[in-house]
TrEMBL record:
SUPFAM superfamilies named in the record: Homeodomain-like, Regulatory protein AraC
Ranges in a coiled coil: none
MF terms (GO), sorted A to Z: DNA-binding transcription factor activity; sequence-specific DNA binding
The protein's name in its UniProt record: Helix-turn-helix transcriptional regulator
InterPro entries: AraC-bd, Homeodomain-like_sf, HTH-like, HTH_AraC, HTH_AraC-typ_CS, RmlC-like_jellyroll
HTH araC/xylS-type domain residues: 189-287
Entry-linked PANTHER family: ARAC-FAMILY TRANSCRIPTIONAL REGULATOR
Length: 293
């Protein structure tokens, strides 16, 4: 497993990237984690899968939206034969082509403080229909490209941002923390690579600190500041992600999955899995069987 930085070039005229991707289950082994300095909005057009974001795991299916904030390492696993997704990428700084942000405090605050958003927009949310309608408007305008389509797309992009800021804002940030997270991700690269290759083994804070030439106490603080979660929670998140994949794609027993993913005992596995996903491993497997029946 590798974690790398993805770079994108945004044009001044159209400060966004829009693309439709077909992800294959056969590519799961090659689905390395990546992160970038822009915001990504992904709509699941068809298929089912899992998105992993830091220590969190999200099951997704047709119609779900997933939001990736700047500097959030994320990856995917396809559970159906294929999963088709539509991706829109936005730069963190809103282009002045969209609006004169100096006259709008909401946009100015977003540009300065780098607000974070919730990673998944639930279909049950009362604001989901309006968000979906705006997203679809962008797709239609980009496909038909009638006169003035670029102006409508820019207007809809601004509307999406306002929806995110108004309804799905998780927490504010500061410019200094934003820059620190970016450099922190690079400094922790060896740690991420080790964890994704050895999550099934006993991993200690001392081991990871030595990879970064830090003391355990400093590493613990540095990791938490960069990832907004503790080292232990991040490691357990990886283990839960791998366990969920095995529950979806194999018929292995829950005990075997717990052992294979590095959990010390079955009780710990059940407790941790439910803490991260909201379901016990047994309930998760029942949901999988019901969805494929």
């Amino acid at each position: 497993m590798n974690i790398y930085q993805a770079d994108f070039n945004f044009s001044t005229k159209n400060p966004f990237i829009l693309e439709t991707l077909t992800l294959n289950r056969s590519d799961n082994a090659d689905s390395d984690f990546h992160w970038h300095s822009c915001i990504e909005i992904t709509l699941i057009k068809r298929g089912i899968g899992i998105y992993n974001v830091k220590e969190k795991t999200f099951s997704v299916s047709q119609g779900d939206f997933v939001i990736f904030n700047p500097m959030e390492a994320h990856g995917w696993e396809v559970l159906s034969a294929q999963m088709e997704v539509i991706v829109i990428l936005f730069p963190t700084e809103l282009s002045t082509n969209l609006i004169d942000s100096s006259h709008n405090k909401v946009i100015t605050d977003f540009m300065i403080y780098g607000v974070s958003f919730y990673n998944k927009i639930e279909k049950s949310s009362e604001h989901y229909p309006e968000f979906l309608e705006t997203f679809h408007s962008i797709l239609v305008e980009d496909q038909t490209r009638k006169i003035g389509y670029d102006l409508i797309i820019k207007s809809d992009i601004l509307k999406l941002f306002i929806h995110l800021i108004r309804y799905f804002k998780a927490s504010p940030d500061s410019p200094e923390n934003y820059r620190n997270r970016e450099s922190g991700m690079l400094r922790l690269k060896k740690v991420f690579q080790y964890l994704y290759s050895n999550y099934n083994e006993k991993v200690t804070l001392q081991q990871m600190a030595s990879l970064c030439y830090m003391t355990p106490s400093y590493f613990s603080s540095y990791f938490h500041q960069t990832m907004n979660c503790t080292f232990t929670r991040y490691l357990n998140g990886i283990r839960v992600q791998q366990a969920q994949k095995l529950l979806y794609t194999t018929e292995k027993s829950i005990l075997d999955i717990a052992n294979e993913c590095g959990f010390p005992n079955l009780s710990n596995f059940y407790r941790t899995y439910k803490d991260y996903t909201g379901f016990s491993p047994g309930k998760e497997r029942t949901r999988i069987e019901d969805s494929t029946a």
